[in-house]
Design goal:
single chain; alpha/beta; TIM Barrel; 2 domains; 11-stranded mixed beta sheet; 12 helices
Length: about 350
C-alpha cells in the first residue's frame, strides 16, 4: 500500500508493486496522540486533551522528525509545533478560519491572485506534518486545489494573463504530489512564454527529507526557469544530517534555497535560538528569508507573541548577525498588495507597518 492524493488533494491508499522510500516513511507517520506520547516517554495525563484537539485537527508527524525531539520533555520546541493541546479548542476574538484572506483571493479552483505578477497554486491539501499553527488548518481543500483536472484551470488562467511572470506552488505541501503530477504542471507552464520564474513552498525537506530523491531532483534540474525552493524550519534542531543532504541535492539540481520561519511562543521566540537557526541554515546553503508573525488562525492563539517582543528579537539579531542572515520580520495582511514588514517602534510606542515593495 502507499499513500497518494485524490483529485481534491486528500490522502488515499492504493496498491503498488514498489514505492519510493518517502512514501514508506509517510505511511509510518504518527497519527495517534497515544503513540506520540509513548514514543517520547511523556505523561499519559496529556492524552485526553490531545485526543480532543486531534478530533478538530488531525495529528500527523513523521517518525524521523519525532526522533529529533527530546524524550521526556513536554516543552521540547519541536514537539510543541505538532502536539495537539486543549488550548486549540478555545475561541479567541481575532483568531479566524481564514486569517490571510485566501478565499477572497481565489481566482479559480485553488489558484490565488494576491500580488502583482505572481500567482499561487494550492497544489493539494495534504502535508507530511500537521503543524498546529498552520494558517490553512481550516482551509476547505475539497474542491479548492489547483491540481484538479491536470492543472487545467490554473494553466488556462496563467496563459490568459501576460502580467503573471512567477508561479508559486504551495498547499498543503506541493511535494506531497507525485513527480508525474508536478511534471504535468511544469510541462504546461513551459508553453506559456511570460512565465519567467517558478517557486516551491515546502516543509518536506525538513520533516520528510526522504522526499528529495533522484526523481524529484531530476525534475528540478529539468526546469527551464530559475527555481526557488522556500523551505520552512523554525528551530535549529529541525536540521539534521538527512535534512542537510536534502538541501545539497536540491542545490545540485539548480534550486535556490530560502527559509521562512514562523515566530512561535515557547518554540523560537528567542534571539539566541534564531541566531543559531540562521547560522545553521546558511552553513547548509539556505538563506534566511522571512520571519512571519503568527497568522491568527483559530486554534493557534497560544503560539502568538506581541509585535513589540518580535521587534526586540529582530533588533538583537541585527546587532549580532550580518544583514544577510537576518530574516525580514513580516505579517500578511488580507487585501494588502505585498507582505507587510514590521518597522521600527513609532512615537506612540507601536510598531510601524511598512508594505514591502519586493517579491514575496
Amino acid at each position: 500500500m502507499h499513500a497518494a492524493l485524490d483529485k481534491d488533494g486528500m490522502i488515499t491508499c492504493h496498491e503498488t508493486a514498489s514505492q519510493p522510500a518517502w512514501r514508506r516513511a509517510l505511511e509510518r507517520a504518527i497519527t495517534d496522540p497515544e503513540t506520540l506520547l509513548d514514543c517520547l516517554q511523556l505523561d499519559r495525563a496529556l492524552l485526553p486533551a490531545a485526543r480532543r484537539a486531534t478530533a478538530a485537527f488531525g495529528l500527523r508527524v513523521p517518525r524521523g522528525f519525532v526522533e529529533r525531539m527530546r524524550p521526556g520533555d513536554p516543552l521540547d520546541p519541536l514537539l510543541l509545533q505538532v502536539l495537539p493541546l486543549v488550548e486549540e479548542l478555545d475561541e479567541i476574538d481575532g483568531y479566524v478560519a481564514d486569517p490571510v484572506g485566501d478565499r477572497a483571493a481565489e481566482a479559480d479552483r485553488g489558484t490565488l491572485r494576491k500580488y502583482q505578477g505572481r500567482v499561487l497554486l494550492i497544489a493539494g491539501g495534504a502535508c507530511a506534518v500537521n503543524c498546529r499553527y498552520c494558517f490553512r488548518r481550516e482551509f476547505p481543500y475539497a474542491g479548492h486545489v489547483a491540481a484538479t483536472g491536470g492543472w487545467a484551470g490554473a494553466l488556462k488562467l496563467i496563459a490568459a494573463d501576460p502580467s503573471i511572470t512567477e508561479v508559486i506552488v504551495s498547499g498543503g505541501d506541493p511535494l506531497m504530489l507525485s513527480d508525474s503530477v508536478l511534471s504535468r504542471l511544469t510541462d504546461g507552464l513551459q508553453d506559456i512564454p511570460h512565465v519567467l520564474r517558478f517557486r516551491i513552498h515546502t516543509r518536506l525537506p525538513i520533516v520528510l527529507p526522504e522526499r528529495i530523491d533522484a526523481g524529484l531532483c531530476d525534475w528540478l534540474a529539468s526546469l527551464p526557469w530559475p527555481v526557488s525552493v522556500v523551505v520552512h524550519a523554525n528551530h535549529p534542531r529541525e536540521i539534521n544530517a538527512e535534512v542537510i543532504h536534502a538541501f545539497q541535492r536540491m542545490r545540485q539540481a539548480g534550486a535556490i534555497l530560502l527559509n521562512q520561519s514562523v515566530l512561535l511562543k515557547r518554540v523560537n521566540d528567542d534571539a539566541d535560538v534564531l541566531a543559531t537557526l540562521s547560522h545553521t541554515l546558511f552553513a547548509a546553503g539556505v538563506l534566511p528569508y522571512y520571519l512571519h508573525m503568527l497568522d491568527r488562525v483559530s486554534g493557534a492563539a497560544h503560539f502568538d507573541i506581541p509585535e513589540t517582543r518580535a521587534l526586540d528579537i529582530i533588533d538583537s539579531l541585527t546587532a549580532r548577525l550580518p544583514g544577510y542572515l537576518v530574516p525580514r520580520l513580516v505579517r500578511e495582511v488580507p487585501g494588502a498588495n505585498s507582505k507587510t514588514a514590521l518597522g521600527p517602534i513609532s512615537g506612540n510606542g507601536t510598531p510601524e507597518a511598512v508594505p514591502l515593495r519586493r517579491p514575496m
